Amino acid sequence: MEVIKSADNRAVKHIAKLKDKKYRDEYNQFFAEGYKNVFDTANARPELIKNVVLSESAYSELGDKFTDFDTTVLSDIVFDKITDTKSCQGVLAVIEKPQSTHPKSDCCILLDRVRDPGNVGTILRTAVACGYDVVLNNCADVYSPKVIRSAMSAIVKCNIGIDIRPDQIQKAGYNLIVADMNGNNVFGEKISGKYCIVVGNEAEGVSEQIIEQADKLLSLPQSNMESLNAAVAAAVMMFVLKFDRN
After folding, report:
1. How far apart are CA 67 and CA 64, in angstroms?
2. What are the pLDDT digits (tens) for 171-222?
């Protein structure tokens, strides 16, 4: 296997460009780092893997795990120049973005201007665990390295829709359930039929326009705190409404 030893190599430059949203959009690609992340993503959606990139050290140990994919090997020095984290075990993959899709499951969650990449990634992982589709409206770029690290392989396991209006979701038969401090206690509510939970911006909550469109407002009971982290609130809402419906 040829080892690329120059950072000026065309393939190396392409990967480095994918750190920039402009080029992720232009090429319709992103990259994921870390052995487990890449391995799980490749198993879940092998057709999306464009290239697996290994450091020279990692290739000797892990190269046989990715024989079904086009593989590029970089010297350790060059690999370290393009990686976004020091704990990726010398493994990354260039991946085609999945197509944006409207919700298909009976339950989904809409993120309204959630800007923290860690929150977006954590919510995606929880959504996969609970069987929710996800809609992202004016949120942190879902294919940024920070979101990918937080979401792990959930990024390709989840049906994700980008910038889908709430009224379009309602027209598809979903009840719009907004997480809001003025809503009813979620632990006392029973929701029937298809529903979409809406979680809002970390500082401002859900927009007034969406609140006015809501079919129901629900809240989490709290003691001595005014608000919860968006990812925590989303996780509790998803679990309660999905698994406590009888």
Report:
1. 6
2. 999 999 999 989 999 998 888 899 999 999 999 999 999 999 999 999 998 8
Interior/surface letters 114-124, b for 16+ CB within 10 angstroms, e for the rest: bebbbbbbbbb
What is the pTM (predicted TM-score) of this model? 0.93
| The amino acid at 193 | G
Tracing tokens 């120059």 back to the chain, one arrives at 6
Query: Would you give the end-to-end CA distance of the chain in angstroms?
Result: 58
| Sheet with 175-185: strands ordered across | 160-162, 133-137, 107-112, 195-199, 175-185, 216-219
Chain mean position to CA 66: 23
Q: Is residue 41 within 8 Å of 156, Cβ to Cβ? A: yes
Number of H helices, E strands in the chain: 11, 11
Could you report the per-residue pLDDT of 125-181, keeping only the tens digit for each?
999 999 999 999 999 999 999 999 999 999 999 999 999 999 999 999 999 999 998
Q: 212: Cβ–Cβ under 8 A, 6 or more apart, which residues?
A: none
Report pLDDT digits (tens) over 85-96: 777 899 999 999
The two tokens of residue 95 are: 């991946």
Cβ contacts of 149-152, under 8 Å, gap ≥ 24: 149/33, 149/34, 149/37, 149/84, 149/85, 149/121, 150/117, 150/118, 150/120, 150/121, 150/122, 150/124, 150/125, 151/120, 151/121, 151/122, 151/124, 151/125, 152/36, 152/37, 152/40, 152/121, 152/125
φ, ψ for residue 200, nearest 5 deg: -100, -175
Show the tokens assigned to 138.
Answer: 């004016």
